[in-house]
Design a protein that fits this description.
Chain lengths: 760, 157
């Protein structure tokens, strides 16, 4: 237990320098006066705002666990399943302490109620609801933020889910002891039964659930040690996969409630524009299958009895649009504006140590200087955005794949005026999230359309084109470096200044306006660029804000998605300038951070770093979302500027892990996601309009380019870090560093393919 | 029009140009086949048409009258998963899963054509996009399914 608390404390400290955007809590300080909910209320089922909707027959032992008389165990998993395996890994944490087989578990997603709040997302402190929430956590438990993002589900749930299982198990043991009128110490929990160790009698959990449900646990049980785990830390097969190979898994776009109709939208084409009139509404409404044409504040829409008919009719709408004065915006202009911002004073300097300017301005020193650039990126999840809403008098229902059931519920409430308590959220699988489905826009739009046809469920589906042109993009960024490296390879000065739009300011103003941080306080801007683990004698990291009406959003790994490319590339430049091997150069600067050093050494060994075998290798090391990832890309030269990306070696230290196979899967997917951006990803504007609108213009890595990936997970007892995002950031710099090793050419701008390189 | 889908004859009354994808999804509520791009660029909508993997989002329904259409719902037979589906579970291939109907159909088609495909064959045949990046596992699962199919065939001998 002491060790556990130590780990928690360590996590909290570590989190501070990985601290993310959501922490701008200033706007909510007044809410802290609200009476919070008691610290131990979750130990029993007396939870005021917990309804257990959808959990089926049986008795609730707490907000997460219901056991039916037939021994079926239903777990309420309040996080979105978007491929990261959370419908399996949260049950693993509960099953470990509850002492049940994973095969007896079924999963539902509960309504967005208080017990399910993701408090870590906002406080960056590992919560323990069973020991009592901190004041800040109580605020989020009262105003539940039931959301999935920031690689936080395990980090948030690691204490709570194990205690949910452990307290339920204790209640079952106590119920059995009372039934048998025997000592608690002779009641043993095993595989869904309580066994009387004196006479080998046994009672199933289903037989005890009703009695157990009314027992209050007065003292928290001790959690199992890592060495005793049987379920956590093992590659349990994912519960969602069987239905994903038969086509029966239900995504948002697959729901078919009775009488449902389909809607297709036409958004304004110019940034910030507004559709002001539909000139051929009557003609379009006469089309076969078309039920209604509507104009909402978000754009025009056609409601029809088939998605294809709705889409074709929407394309035939003749619309008038107010371009909001943004028709002059172009990518060339945006770049010029970013360069201007880079030349102005920074709005924030999140890291400053020593006197960087003095070293850089010293005429005796040679300054290495580089400018890096990345473009805007779309999320382009495979399932185009969609949402189905039924507005029915004072009630509403929403069927949607989302990254936040509370966000979905809020969004429907905002546009329909229906009270949140009367809105039922049906959470489906997500055909990809990557941060896009944390945004409220598509739910609001679907709600606004459905409101025009009350009593009928309306499924609003964005075409791929509408999806890509109305994304909340990863912002473009410039990153300028100046460094002085001494003859013996020490970094005497490191000056890094960035120019970009603030993601947290833009996105939070849509998701939770009260929580929107000012751009100067947006730590997501420099996350992964500030507080690098390497020893540097003097360092400064600062940024300037690019003010544009483009909506930017959280994109898998957020600031780290560009900052790892910037910092790990420039670090390679520093190594090269001082004539040092990129591995040794890094390793020599990691003596303050043994976990980073161990990851780097492991990935170097795995990849046979330094081998003269005709392959070229590049490495990158980066911490994000509480986990450290080291990667080596191994490439072969096929011709002039032509390469094959043969293999990635990936090492992650995510502390204790729940399911090693899903950790590896996230690393594999994260690398491919990072490579797609590095090779192809770019969203551009001309005359205020997005130019890329489908996969032929915005391509992805496919099978033929995808590398082989070899994984290793470090073993330790540190508190868990996230795994959904940390695989992405190092992928680009590992590749460009390998290309440098092969050619001596330094790639400072993404995407690579648009600069004449090709890959097979 | 009469369509033959997963061995059953089904009447549909729709425009001749309606892509097969939308006939399946919105007229017949067979939602295992997915919409991804609408321009035959991603492969999420892939079905077997006369045994060949075909992107159905741009395939007019009138052009498949009289042909054998097989969708993901028809890949398992009598409740028995195909070798490809079993291999997909064995290798824990899907992440979000949205593209996997199309990936599985493309793999079935490849294995019908080449019982023991090489990595190069897989590179050429498997052109569907997976945004989650499951390619390595798709590749491994195809190699496994190739072995299992041959074993099944030799048992059926």
């Amino acid at each position: 237990m002491a060790n556990q608390e130590k780990n928690n404390k360590e996590r909290s400290t570590a989190a501070k320098w990985g601290r993310r955007a959501f922490i701008g809590v200033g706007g909510l300080a007044g809410v802290g006066l609200l009476v919070g909910i008691g610290g131990t209320v979750y130990v029993n089922k007396k939870i005021k705002k917990y309804s257990g909707i959808g959990m089926g027959e049986g008795d609730s032992l707490n907000a997460w666990i219901r056991i039916a008389p037939d021994n079926t165990i239903t777990l309420a998993v309040p996080r979105a399943e978007m491929g990261q395996g959370i419908y399996t890994s949260i049950p693993q944490m509960i099953a470990e302490e509850l002492e049940v087989d994973m095969s007896t578990i079924q999963v539902i997603q509960p309504q967005p109620e208080a017990p399910y709040s993701n408090t870590f997302l906002l406080t960056q402190e590992a919560p323990n609801a069973f020991k009592g929430y901190s004041m800040m956590e109580k605020i989020y438990a009262v105003l539940p933020i039931v959301a999935t993002g920031g690689s936080t589900s395990i980090v948030d749930g690691f204490n709570n889910m194990r205690y949910a299982g452990a307290t339920a198990r204790e209640a079952l043991r106590q119920a059995a002891a009372a039934r048998w009128d025997t000592e608690l110490s002779s009641c043993k929990a095993e595989k869904g039964y309580i066994i009387n160790t004196v006479n080998d009698e046994k009672l199933s959990y289903g037989q005890l659930a009703e009695a157990a449900a009314s027992i209050e646990i007065k003292e928290l049980p001790e959690l199992k040690k890592k060495s005793d785990w049987k379920v956590i830390g093992t590659p349990v097969q994912r519960l969602d996969i069987p239905e994903k190979v038969t086509g029966t898994a239900q995504f948002g776009i697959d729901v078919r409630p009775d009488k449902m109709l389909y809607a297709a939208m036409r958004h304004p084409t110019t940034i910030g524009g507004k559709i002001t009139a539909i000139n051929n509404q009557e003609d379009i409404e006469k089309r076969a299958g078309v039920e209604k044409v509507v104009l909402t504040e978000y754009g025009a829409a056609v409601i029809a009895n088939n998605t294809w008919r709705a889409k074709n009719a929407a394309l035939a709408l003749r619309l008038e649009e107010d371009s909001a004065g943004n028709e002059e915006i172009s990518s060339a202009g945006i770049l010029a504006q970013m360069k201007e911002v880079l030349g102005e004073a920074a709005i924030a300097t999140p890291e400053q140590e020593g006197d960087v300017d003095a070293v850089i301005n010293d005429e005796n020193n040679t300054v290495i200087e580089s400018l890096y650039e990345v473009p805007y990126l779309a999320h382009a999840a495979m399932e185009p955005l969609n949402c189905t809403v039924l507005v029915d008098g004072e009630d509403a229902q929403v069927w949607v794949g989302h990254q936040g059931s509370s966000i979905a519920q809020n969004s429907v409430s905002e546009v329909t005026g229906i009270s949140k308590a009367n809105i039922k959220v049906h959470s489906t699988y997500l055909g990809g999230g990557f941060g896009r489905r944390a945004e409220p826009d598509y739910v609001r739009k679907a709600g606004a359309i459905a409101k025009e046809m009350p009593g009928i469920p309306i499924q609003t589906v964005f075409t791929r084109e509408e999806d890509m042109r109305n994304d909340m993009y990863r912002p473009a960024a410039l990153s300028q470096f100046k460094a002085v490296v001494s003859a013996d390879g020490e970094i005497a000065a490191w000056d890094n200044k960035m120019a970009l739009q603030s993601v947290s300011n833009s996105s939070m103003s849509r998701i939770m306006p009260a929580m929107a941080v000012s751009p100067a306080k947006d730590v997501a801007t420099t996350e992964g660029a500030a507080h690098l683990p390497y020893i540097m004698k003097n360092r400064k990291v600062s940024f300037g804000q690019v003010d544009l009406p483009i909506q930017v959003g959280f994109w898998r790994s957020v600031g780290s998605s560009q900052n790892a490319f910037f910092t790990e590339s420039f670090l390679d430049e520093c190594a090269s300038a001082s004539g040092q091997d990129p591995y040794e150069f890094r390793r020599n600067k990691l003596s303050d951070h043994p976990r980073f050093k161990a990851v780097l050494e492991k990935v170097a060994a795995m990849s046979n770093w330094g081998a003269q075998d005709g392959k070229y290798r590049g490495m990158a090391l980066h911490k994000s979302f509480g986990s450290i990832v080291g990667q080596v890309a191994e490439i072969s030269k096929l011709g002039d500027k032509q390469f094959s990306i043969d293999k990635y070696y990936n090492v992650i230290d995510c502390g204790m892990y729940i399911n090693p196979d899903t950790v590896e899967a996230q690393m594999e997917g994260g690398i491919v996601f990072g490579l797609s951006a590095a090779l192809y990803g770019e969203i551009t504007w001309d005359e205020g309009e997005v130019q890329e609108y489908n996969f032929p213009q915005y391509d992805m890595v496919r099978m033929n380019v995808s590398p082989k990936i070899e994984n290793h997970i470090m073993e330790n007892e540190h508190y868990p870090g996230g795994v959904g995002e940390p695989g992405t950031p190092p992928a680009a710099p590992a590749l460009t560093n390998a290309i440098f090793a092969a050619t001596g050419e330094r790639i400072r701008k993404l995407p690579i393919v648009k600069q004449g390189w090709s890959f097979a | 029009m009469e369509l033959k889908i997963n061995g059953k004859n089904i009447q549909v009354d729709v425009e001749e140009q309606m892509p097969l994808l939308w006939v399946l999804r919105d007229e017949l509520n067979m939602t295992g086949t997915k919409y991804g791009c609408g321009v035959a660029a991603c492969g999420a909508c892939t079905c077997l048409v006369d045994g060949v993997a075909t992107r159905t989002c741009t395939l007019a329904v009138s052009s498949v009258v009289g042909k054998e259409i097989k969708t993901i719902e028809g890949i398992a037979s009598d409740g028995q998963l195909s070798a490809v589906q079993k291999a997909w579970i064995q290798h824990q291939v899907p992440q979000c899963g949205y593209c996997q109907s199309g990936q599985i159909i493309a793999a079935e088609s490849l294995l019908d054509e080449k019982a023991n495909p090489t990595d190069e064959d897989i590179d050429q045949a498997m052109t569907n996009i997976c945004r989650c990046g499951t390619y390595q596992r798709v590749r491994e699962a195809i190699h496994t399914a190739a072995i299992w199919r041959q074993e099944e065939n030799s048992l059926l001998g």
